[in-house]
Amino acid sequence: SAKDMSKFAFQFEKAYINGQWVDADNKATIAVTNPATGELIGTVPNMGATETRRAIEAANKALPGWRSKTAKERARILRNWFDLIMKNQDALAQLMTAEQGKPLAESKGEIAYGASFIEWFGEEAKRLYGETIPGHASDKRLIVIKQAIGVCAAITPWNFPSAMITRKVGPALAAGCTIVLKPASQTPFSALALCQLAEEAGIPPGVFSCVTGSATAIGGELSSNPIVKKLSFTGSTEIGKLLLAQCATTVKKVSMELGGNAPFIVFDDADIDLAVAGTIISKYRNAGQTCVCANRIMVQDSIYDIFVEKFAKAVSALKVGSGVEAGTVIGPLIDERALLKVEEQVNDAVKKGGKVVLGGKRHALGGSFYEPTVVSGATRDMLAFREETFGPLAPIFKFSSEAEAIEMANDTPFGLAAYFYSQNIGRIWRVAEALEYGMVGINEGLISNEVAPFGGVKESGLGREGSQHGIEDYLEMKYLCMGGI
Ligand code: ADP
């Protein structure tokens, strides 16, 4: 209930604009529920374009002061923010599990992962070097400097309620930009808790605002207002394309982290037990609701049966339950719509000849719980081959040659993460180079961290987040040509 949330001691049920905790102009609210219980947690303001415009104008007003601080001063404040997040890791994790459903251990992990972007980019800010270029004429000197883009906007999803925010806000603030966030309506409390800690850390009013409410109204304003110079979005490819089109009218810079359809390939020369463990982590983290989750598990014919047997055995040991219960590995799906999508893909697979080895139906716990499911004999005509599942279904496809595996893996408009297991060094290089993906896990099922560039190719996105490259998305380079020397 709403009262129980007070134990987290964060400011709730108001949006955060220009350093103020505010309601919607018309006092309208939206409900936030716990996906494990269906219980109402609380409400947040249902804001629209007017409030968003106010946040953008405040960000514009705050920009000169923030941008003109030294990188070291900004880094100091970001470090405060990082420390406060880590100090409150347990409370933030409980809040996340309450609104998102993931197991508490995963929530704790995400808080640390999310905070790491703030620490990393604060440190990177001090090393945003420019260039000097040997001139094209003896009386000229050529220089490149890097400057903050200006006012930015971020739209983030519910599957990582904290880390998808810090991965954008961290580099934006480190670079000297100001930013307006629209968090997912399913998980706004994690976002507002970050705002509260940002305020405490000394981030000035207007530098980071959070507007809750209507996705179309807020998203429409963020993507069309000429003050906003850059939009960073993480979510579905469908909405990403819409936002790209909206941003085209004012030629905004964009970063897009969109959908994936990750192949997870196990070659006959792989360490099978390692591959089984990697598949479990990649497939079932966050109940399958990540854009880098294994979507299509492809196993070479000679080891197919033994892999399916070992994998199903490992999956059957995964405990399903509420995220707050000790030992839970798989929580509920975010909502009924997510459940229906998994159900549709499982039914489609069965209709087309797939064999349910494990699971295959809604979980006895009810609500949006679904049984971890393994389907063997998966084929290319199935929905699960074409579409991102975003749920606990593991379809296992069979291939016979390396060339066939690569061709199958690339047979999709998506190109975010791919994984493969092999012990053959020649094959490892050939396959790594042939996969049309932005990220490749090799004998590894978990690849996200703050020091590496996260992002996709093809219809999976534009730009990279994390790493030394992630901050470049928030910088413009300016070329200075000095003559008459
Ligand atoms: P999902 O289906 O995983 O929820 P979406 O792409 O629909 O992914 O949502 C990701 C984020 O985009 C959320 O914050 C959501 O509120 C926002 N969003 C959804 N529709 C729009 C839209 N038309 N304009 C702007 N943002 C949107």
From TrEMBL:
The keyword Oxidoreductase applies. The keyword Oxidoreductase applies. Pfam families: Aldedh. The active site is at E257. GO terms for molecular function: succinate-semialdehyde dehydrogenase (NAD+) activity. Residues 21-479 form the Aldehyde dehydrogenase domain. Keywords: Oxidoreductase. InterPro entries: Ald_DH/histidinol_DH, Ald_DH_C, Ald_DH_CS_CYS, Ald_DH_CS_GLU, Ald_DH_N, Aldehyde_DH_dom, Aldehyde_DH_Superfamily, Succ_semiAld_DH. NCBIfam families: PRK11241.1, SSADH. This is Succinate-semialdehyde dehydrogenase I.
